[in-house]
Design goal:
A hairpin with a 4-residue loop joins strand 26 and strand 27. With 262 residues, this protein is of the alpha/beta class. Helix 2 packs antiparallel against helix 3. The chain has helices at 192-197, 203-217, 223-233, 238-249, and strands at residues 7-8, 13-14, 19-20, 25-26, 31-32, 37-38, 43-44, 48-50, 55-56, 61-64, 78-80, 85-86, 91-93, 102-104, 109-110, 115-116, 121-122, 127-128, 133-134, 139-140, 145-146, 151-152, 157-158, 163-164, 169-170, 178-181, 186-190. Strands 3-6-9-12-15-18-21-24-26-27 form a ten-stranded mixed beta sheet.
């Protein structure tokens, strides 16, 4: 159903069973997947592709022009995965380059008043709380929860299955499986409830994760030495490798402890 009171550019590509409510705006050079719903006063701007079953609520702008002076008006892109929900007044900016772009994975929930900047990448099954601010060139891995009013600064990298509590400001990288809270940001423990109930981790895996982060955050040693202790103390497993690889790939720069340089 497409309301005659909506604006849909004739060049927009619409899938099957798309619903576009009155006063919605669908720009040229857009792709709207099957079963998508565009609510009143929502906008889908040029360069945007919506997967199947995406719902965009009132006042949201998906694929807005990037807020970056480096963007000079070139064609750029925004991609939204299947079954993602974008709530009221969310703004998601396109990329600033002709290649790549901003991307949101499948089965995500982006809550009201949040902003996701240019060229950021949010993986599958993430929850972005109310009024979260994600700057440009940020990466958020799968299964992560950002509570209301979290701020992620430019080029931060957040590991998978992480919980960041409300109002926390992140200016460095957050390793996988942890809870972060407070300002200045502090390691708050392992995200064990989500790991156990929703990600299917065993108690042994959770114990290994907790042991690894005790070395990193609670041993008052350098991060370099903490990583060596983890390799000596914990058998090689996928979760151990995930932690070590994340930290090393991010130049040993992680958030959350006064003994570590952010």
């Amino acid at each position: 159903m497409i309301s005659p009171l909506a604006y849909v550019d004739p060049s927009a590509k619409l899938g099957k069973d798309v619903t576009i409510h009155p006063f919605a705006y669908v720009d040229a050079d857009t792709v709207i997947g099957d079963d998508c719903v565009i609510m009143p006063y929502a906008s889908v701007v040029r360069g945007t592709t919506l997967g199947k079953g995406v719902k965009v609520y009132q006042g949201a702008i998906v694929g807005a022009d990037p807020q970056d002076f480096r963007w000079k008006g070139c064609k750029s892109f925004c991609f939204i995965g299947d079954n993602t929900i974008i709530r009221e007044h969310v703004i998601i900016n396109r990329g600033i380059h002709e290649e790549g772009g901003t991307s949101i994975g499948a089965d995500c929930v982006i809550c009201a008043d949040s902003h996701i900047g240019h060229d950021s990448h949010v993986a599958d099954k993430c929850v972005i709380g109310n009024a979260v601010s994600i700057a440009g060139d940020v990466k958020v891995d799968s299964g992560t929860i950002l509570s209301s009013h979290v701020v992620l600064h430019e080029k931060c990298n957040v590991g998978k299955l992480t919980l960041i509590k409300g109002g926390t400001r992140i200016s460095s990288n957050v390793p996988p499986y942890v809870i972060m809270a407070h300002n200045p940001v502090t390691y708050y423990g392992v995200n064990s409830l989500i790991l156990r109930k929703h990600a299917g981790f065993t108690e042994e895996q959770i114990d290994d994760i907790a042991k690894a982060y005790r070395h990193i955050y609670q041993s008052s040693t350098s991060l370099f030495n903490a990583l060596r202790r983890i390799e000596d103390d914990i058998d090689e497993t996928p979760v151990r490798s995930e932690i070590l690889t994340f930290i090393r790939n991010n130049d040993l720069k992680i958030s959350g402890n006064r003994f570590l340089d952010e």
